[in-house]
Request: fold
Amino acid sequence: MSQDTYVGAIDQGTTGTRFMVFDHAGEVVANSYEKHEQIYPEPGWVEHDATEIWRNTKHVINTALDEAGLDAEQLEAIGITNQRETTVVWDAETGKPIHNALVWQDRRTTDRVEEIQAEDKVEWIRGKTGLECDAYFSATKVEWILDNADPIKLSRSRPQDVRDRAEDGELMMGTIDSWLIYKLTGNHITDVTNASRTMLYNIHDNEWDHELLEEFNVPASMLPEVRPSSDDEFYGTTADVGFLDADIPVAGALGDQQAALFGQTCFDEGDAKNTYGTGSFMLMNTGEEAVASEHGLLTTIGFQRSGEPVQYALEGAIFITGAAIEWLEDMTLIENAAETEELARSVDSSDDVYLVPAFTGLGAPHWDGRARGTIVGMTRGTRREHVVRATLESIAYQTRDVAEAMEADSGIDMGALRVDGGAVKNNFLCQLQADIIDTDIVRPVVDETTALGSAYAAGLAVGYWDTIDELRDNWQVDREFEPDADADYESNYERWNEAVARAEDWARDGGDE
Reply:
């Protein structure tokens, strides 16, 4: 390892794409970010243009390298982390998507999910995949695309039926990691963590499940090869497609929440982290055992290194947290996210106002695709400060919902909770979180742990880092928040649960589905 070489990380998220370059100490030496368009064709539908995402990916890579004065040849490897479950189908010949990507937040397949529930197949699916049967995951999304993509748009003079083309191996399916690996290397590959989020992958047998493929009518010929998250055989190199005029191995990939688990160095059984992004996602490492949840959590693959067993995790997936703060901006209640801390501190409480940000349904532990955003308790005396504080409290209450379920499933009392993501810059929120779940909250110096985790995975694969102990040595605490002994949120938490009950099962006949 040369002192002037680095590892790059593509962090492709729900709202934008970032490229970061890390040195051996895990410190950031280059960083570029660009947003992409959010497309809402109908209420409850969310799409992204995968071609725009690839264009932005190229732009942020080149921009970060240029601004830092780095040459592409100084990158020893590239890792990828991505918004999970978001699904792309593209033409194998042209490399062009046949439809916009369906985003993880998209609810258009709720009716299909309810059909499966009515057929009593939920436990069958959970037993294979560790997942709730929900529109959140990729299976019903790819099924919808194959049933609804317009063959006229496939740029063929005599278009065949979309499903026929899929059966013939002329179409490829993937999550965003797979799409970017394909564009960077020409190879159709995904990693175990992203595969485990499709609702098509058997996490116990570690292979695509043919019974699930039949259930969702997804041809096996569309699917990517599944490889370890940190792969010393690489997924390919940029030289394979001539990108960057350099031969850089693409050697690591993890879904964003598993990448944060890796970046927070949660390598041991019982280690837990919570990432506050568009949504919030708490993961606890359960080692080589896939712990089945009885409290509405997901059993998922945490990561896998080459030649080593799969490491599993319990996960609580909360759909809307940071996006609730964005909603405050959309409603012009705040000008920017940083303003929330001052506004929340300016009042003693939310004045019995509760906001349930179920804009795209409720995830763990409720799993209600028809829940919708709700504000209760407002009076003529309610001011924007109360609504802002209620929004921050909703983030902390949802995290407590998951933390209690996780302790019940695992039998492990949670110690300190490692946190990351944009929202943890808010000291008020971090203290509030410590008070509401009565647990120490530990914020690291590098809070972009999602990108860092994918860089670690790629760097380990190529020998940039030799052992995970080196990564543990890199991890440093920025600040620790201890529960305030005088804070008492028990009655507030009971009221929160009442508010959640009012938000549930809202989008029925005459609603937006």
In short: Residues 266-445+466-503 form a domain with the Nucleotidyltransferase; domain 5 fold (CATH 3.30.420.40).
